[in-house]
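Hi, here's the filled form for the chain we discussed.

Project: internal
Contact: R.S.
Residues: 149
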Amino acid sequence: MSSRIYVLNGPNLDLLGEREPQIYGTQSLADVEKLCLSVAQRYGAQLLFRQTNAEHEMIAWLHEARRAAGIVINPAGFAYHAVAVLDALRACECPIIEVHISNLYRREEHWRQHSLSAAAATGVITGLGIEGYRLALEYLLLRHTAAHP
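And the returned structure, exactly as it came back:
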């Protein structure tokens, strides 16, 4: 198993900070990446941070990450409909933390309150803004450090 952590972001997160700031906040995806890199640096971990609007690209990245130390994924819209992403997550041999910036359960649209991909996750963090990424990385890196002293 590698010491690499993947942080994978789904559709429309490239517009983070601009799109619906009342729901997702004003911080950009670059701010999220900076936060994640600072956590990884504290642990001396290698971080791969990516975003895509294409389902096939997300699936390819998940195949690449199968044996990583862990995956943090914000599937965004893929959470609600992408069975192929769920299948790719299930093929992973590492811990997976699903992160959602907004609280799915407080969203008005009923269909947003369910995540297909959560069925393959070790844990889910929802509604804590971009701090959810930091918490997910801390968990994965502490777990990895404990398993590989």
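Let me know if anything looks off before we file it.
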